[in-house]
Every structure is written in structure tokens, then in C-alpha cells.
Design a protein that fits this description.
With 436 residues, the protein is mostly helical. It folds into 2 domains: 3-53, Rubrerythrin, domain 2, CATH 2.20.28; 75-412, Citrate Synthase, domain 1. The chain is 49% helix and 6% strand. The protein has 18 helices and 6 strands. The protein has helices at residues 36-40, 76-82, 85-94, 100-111, 118-121, 133-147, 157-182, 196-205, 221-233, 241-250, 256-267, 275-286, 292-300, 321-336, 342-356, 358-362, 369-379, 387-407, and strands spanning 5-9, 16-22, 30-31, 60-63, 68-71, 74-75. A 3-stranded antiparallel sheet has the order 1-2-3. A 3-stranded antiparallel sheet has the order 4-5-6. Helix 12 crosses helix 17 (369-379). The relative contact order is 0.13. Bound molecules: s-citryldethia Coenzyme A (SDX). The site of s-citryldethia Coenzyme A has 22 residues, from helix 17.
Length: 436
Amino acid sequence: MSQDTVSIKNNTSGEEAEFPLLKGSLGTPTVDIGTLNKNLGIFTYDQGFVSTASCKSDITFIDGNKGILLYRGYPIEQLAKHSSFLEVSYLLMNGELPNKDELFSFTDEINHHTMLHEALSGFFGGFHYDAHPMAMMVGVVGSLSAFYHGELNMEDPEHRRISAMRMLAKMPTIAAACYRHSVGWPNVYPRLDLGYCENFLNMMFSLPSQKYIEKDNYIDPITVKALNLLFILHADHEQNASTSTVRLASSTGANPYACIAAGISALWGPAHGGANEAVLSMLAQIGTVDKIPEYIAKAKDKNDPFRLMGFGHRVYKNFDPRATIIRETCYEVLERFPTDDPLFELALALEEYALKDEYFIEKKLYPNVDFYSGIIYRALKIPENMFTVMFVIARTAGWVSHWLEMMSDPTQRIGRPRQLYTGYANRDYVPTDARK
Ligand code: SDX
């Protein structure tokens, strides 16, 4: 069967060439423009990569118009209903759901890698007590590359696999240690007898002498169920900014722990994973329900930098399927942990107002996953500055899966984009004393 192609003609020079049209198993076809510069002497320009595919991947598929999200072909709705975060992590990393024995071995191996090198635990003491936990995450995860470096052979699939397992296993331990440092509490070691989410909650909130008191029982089944769900929904999202950062950093062959630290840095931004924390700050800024119209007007005002955090998405233009799933859990958590916190009422009123507003409807700006996740984390008594850290724990599954995929691709090349140069043309140096 002949290859489908796309013709590109430079109407200025009259030159024209054909380029292969690549079709995936699902989604938008892509034109392979790798030889564009060679054939037509031009580059493409696509600020923010709105129409540019950076790689081929089997991991996650998103259809932004239909609100479809598949992890290795499985609909997110089914995984959210039936699976666990570790089972989904296995799926993303290995391409298939594990059988009972595979899941047991995977879980057991993860549990045995949750500990940190004791010297690493000392790193936290170097941070001021009020350091943002995301700053600590970037630093401490990056420093794992100092503990796992020399013996690492990235050509060896087993070295790659164990590196990915270590990152998935240690992220909750590091995350909990960031929180414990910020409140001046001693670290709590991970336990082999607790599940992934239970272990995290125990490392976060348990006190040495504390007995579980019903009302304070932080390993509540609803809490664990909500965390599992939130981690599943945040596990991967194809080539988002932080995953693309991990891929670009990894394309140079850099230490994998350093590359994941680069992904954490990218995720921190309020336009990306930092949005969940920014949603709560925005709600606090709005203050009361009667102020909503004023802030909606600000969000619509082109001269006002204010944006409605937790709304809009580069890909989803009708609804974020994760938001739809999370919304139900939001109500379940608020019912289990009733609160008179006015922020919850304000959030739901803001959602209702924005969904009816012409501007948001016309611009296709709907609540995204970050709008609701922050509300749930707050109800679970996770501090606001830890919200994006929670996103890191979950997205580590996606980051290491994309890392494994690209590192096993023999055609993988270093990522090195070009540019449209808009600076000065050639000019001569002028001695300092001759300058005006
Ligand atoms: C995540 O990529 C992923 O998959 C990310 C993520 C993942 O799982 O990895 O899904 C996680 O990052 C979710 C998004 C979290 N961010 C926020 O909630 C921050 C608020 N949202 C916006 O900053 C924005 O919507 C983005 C960053 C999410 C998307 O930005 P785009 O695609 O570049 O869209 P844009 O900025 O070009 O906006 C298009 C129009 C603009 O108006 P015009 O210039 O066309 O007149 O919509 C407006 C924007 O001004 N707009 C908003 C808005 N978002 C877009 N106006 C008000 N409030 C907003 N939130």
C-alpha cells in the first residue's frame, strides 16, 4: 500500500515537496517533517507545541473533543472504578495489567524500595523550616542521582527497570519527609505491612506515641480510596509539559533521577501541576460568593493577568474526564468529613457560575482535574503547599513509564529544537569608551 503523504509548497520560492503522513492506532495523523529543512530550506514554528507531536508513544491516548483518556487502551473510568494505583503503575510501565502473582511481586518489590539512604534523610535539615515542599522535592529527588549513579548502566534494561521501581517506591517517603520537615516532626519510616497509600498517610500524619483515635484516624478507608483514585487519575497524561521535560532531559542520556527532578520542576508551575494549590489561593482571594462576578470579570479581562485557576486545558475542549470522576469523590469525601469551611461552598458556587458564563462556554473552559483535587486534598487535611507534591507522587508513574519507553527505543535521538531568530543581524564590536 503506498505511503500517504502531505505536500508542502513554499509559495514564495515555488518549491514543493511531499512528506509522509503517519497514522497512529488512534487520534490525529501527523506529517513527518524531519526532512523539511533539507528539502525546502524552512523550519516549522509552533509556539507551545499546539500542533506538534514530539514522539510516538503506546502509553496514553487523549481525545480532547470527546473527553477520552486511555491508559494502555483501558478507559480511565474503568481503571478509576476497579483498579489500584500500583496496578495502574504496573500497567503504564509494562503495557499490560498484572496477574495476581505479578501484582504481588510488583507490590512486594515496591515495598522493599520505600526506604531512603539514611544520609539522604539528612538533606532535609539543610532546608529552612518554611521551604516550599516542592523546592525540597526538586532538591532531594535530584540528589538521588548522587546515590545511584556510578553503577547505573542505562543500556541495561534491568538497570532501567530497577531505577524506575526505586523512583516509584521512594517518592511517597520523600514527599512525607518534606511535610514532616516543614512541621518540625521526626521522619516516620515506611512499613512493609501497609499498602502504598496507607504507608504514605502513616508517614505523613502518624506521631510516635499516637494511638488511632476514630475521629483523627487518618488511615480512614474513604481517605485511602480517595487517594488511590486521585493517584490513578494523575498518573499519566501523554506529552504534558512535565513529561515532555523528562523526555527532553532523558534524551541526552542524563541520570534518570536528575531527569525526574526536572519533571518535578516543570510540574510546579501554576499553569500545570501547581494549579491545584493555586485554586485554593484563588478561592481565598475571591473570599465570598458575592465576589464571584467580580473575579469572573477579571478572568475575562484581557488586560488583567488574573485567570480562573483549575479551568481550561490545552487538550480537553469539552470536559476533562478526570474532573468528572473526581467530582463524585469530592462529594463523597465532603460527606465523610463534613466541614463548615466556606471555601467548599465557594468552590462549588464558582464552578456553577463559570459553567453558565458565555465566555467560558465559548472559550471551552471547563473545570480540569486540578479544580477538584485541591478541594479533596483540603478535606483530607493535606496542607495546601503539599498539593502539587501529591501530583508528583502520582505522575512519577507516568514519568518513569515514558522514560522506560524512550530509553528502550533504538531510534531515540537527542531532542534539539530549532528557532525563528529575531535578534540583531551581524554587527561589529564597539570599544567600551566609544559607546554612548
Ligand atoms: C494540568 O497538559 C496536560 O495534560 C496538563 C495536565 C496533566 O495531567 O498533565 O492536565 C495537568 O496542568 C491541568 C491544567 C492546570 N492549569 C490551570 O488550571 C491553570 C489555568 N488554566 C490556564 O492557564 C490554561 O487554560 C492552560 C494553561 C491550562 C491551557 O493554556 P493554553 O492551552 O495555552 O490556552 P490559552 O492560554 O491559549 O487560552 C486560550 C484562551 C485565551 O483567550 P484568548 O487569548 O484566545 O482570547 O482561553 C483563555 C485565554 O486567555 N483562558 C482562560 C483560562 N484558560 C485559558 N481565561 C481565563 N481563565 C483561564 N483559566
